[in-house]
Write a structure and sequence with these properties.
19 strands, Rossmann fold, binds adenosine-5'-triphosphate, 10 helices, six-stranded mixed beta sheet, five-stranded antiparallel beta sheet, 2 domains, 357 residues, alpha+beta, OB fold (Dihydrolipoamide Acetyltransferase, E2P)
């Protein structure tokens, strides 16, 4: 089932938590809302769930206006940060509960509970009470309870926040497999870019109540539209160089070599950004740059300031005439103080705006 948000606002007193969001989430899509703390992710999700009323705007599920409808009439399931498990019931009965409410036969309920528990790696915990579980186990029980009833729309708010790195990675694969096999439309809130990149069909990067860019994970990484998105996605973040467009249409930047190498399409975009009086940057991902000898053709002369070996790759921090940036190199034999030549793959240079135009 599709989910539509039409110019949705949510204000709490003088705080605008959600600032006129419009987006269509397609049937069966895995949609991630990604952004820093306080950007409005949870509030947006709670409005889709019906736990919060929008101050303005409309929410449609499967084309039907549900803006003022009770949560229980929306055919959605939720898994939130604070598990919401019944403490006096065993894990089995917690997961079984939504099936009982729907009047399923006992043998059918038992099968579904066992299948779901198996998938989420909690089959051996079915007899325990929530109080006897770790945070991560409770989180998985809450996921199981939401998924067991095969909802049409599934809402998740940081469901893996309490798991260790390894379990988190395996759980994210499991969730993704499960919901795509079942074809459930999923809206997933996270502040973890790796999680969003790995799971989403589309990501909405949010900042201060706005969806700043909504696109596929690759596009968000490859063509961030604004400085905020460029900075938020990728580790280390995209290198950004302040740039401007002259009257004759030439692009200026320090180092100028990056402006000179800008591909035609990005040059056009740079002009459009400048025309609408937006501040302009040239951006390039650290992993799309390389280090060679100083004085090389098309390279920018720089000095190595710091070297951070990470095993497979090395972060090399450089200073080129006062512009500091980082290069992710595969293999490096440079050390602090070395004079080097840094080049950027021309097809990887991007024109980036400060704000959405
Ligand atoms: P986090 O990642 O920390 O959970 P978030 O992106 O989910 O953050 P929200 O919880 O949606 O952010 O909050 C958005 C803004 O709305 C914040 O400034 C928050 O303080 C404010 N806010 C949220 N709920 C309320 C409320 N009930 N009353 C007043 N302000 C609220």
């Amino acid at each position: 089932m599709s989910v539509d948000l039409n110019s949705v606002f949510k204000r709490f007193g003088n705080v605008t938590a959600v600032n006129g969001v419009s987006v269509k989430i397609e049937d069966g899509e895995f949609f991630c809302m990604l952004g820093p703390s306080g950007c409005g992710k949870t509030t947006t999700l709670r409005m889709v769930a019906g736990l919060e009323l929008p101050s303005e705007g409309q929410i449609l599920i499967h084309g039907r206006d549900v803006t003022y409808e009770e949560p229980r009439h929306r055919d959605i399931a939720m898994a939130f940060q604070d598990y919401g498990l019944y403490p006096h019931m065993s894990v089995f009965h917690n997961i079984e509960f939504p099936l009982k409410v729907r009047g399923l036969e006992a043998h059918e309920r038992r099968k579904k509970v066992h299948d779901t528990a198996e998938r989420l790696g909690i089959a051996e915990l079915l007899e325990r009470k929530p109080g006897q579980l770790s945070g991560g186990q409770r989180q998985r029980v809450s996921l199981a309870r939401a998924l067991v009833r095969n909802p049409r729309v599934f809402l998740m708010d940081e469901p893996l926040s309490n798991l260790d790195a390894k379990l988190r990675a395996s759980m994210r694969t499991e969730i993704k497999k499960l919901v795509s096999t079942l074809g459930i439309t999923t809206i997933y809130v996270t502040h973890d870019q790796v999680e969003a990149m790995a799971m989403a069909d589309r990501i909405a990067v949010m900042s201060r109540g706005d969806m700043v860019q909504v696109a596929s994970p690759f596009e968000i990484y490859d063509r961030p539209r604004t400085h905020f998105v460029a900075d938020f996605i990728g580790s280390p973040a995209m290198n950004m160089f302040a740039a401007s467009v002259e009257r004759n249409g030439g692009v200026r930047c320090s180092p100028q070599a990056f402006a000179d190498a800008l591909p035609a399409e990005e040059r056009e975009r740079a002009r459009r950004i400048a025309d609408s009086e937006g501040r302009l940057f040239i951006g390039v991902r650290p992993e799309k740059m390389s280090i060679g000898a100083a004085g090389g053709p098309h390279a920018v002369d720089a000095q190595v300031e710091f070297v951070e070996p990470l095993g497979q790759t090395t972060n090399v921090y450089v200073d080129a005439g006062g512009q500091r940036f980082v290069v992710v190199a595969d293999k490096v034999s440079v050390k602090i103080g070395d004079a080097v030549g840094v080049s950027a793959a021309p097809d990887q240079l991007r024109a980036v705006a400060l704000n959405n135009q």
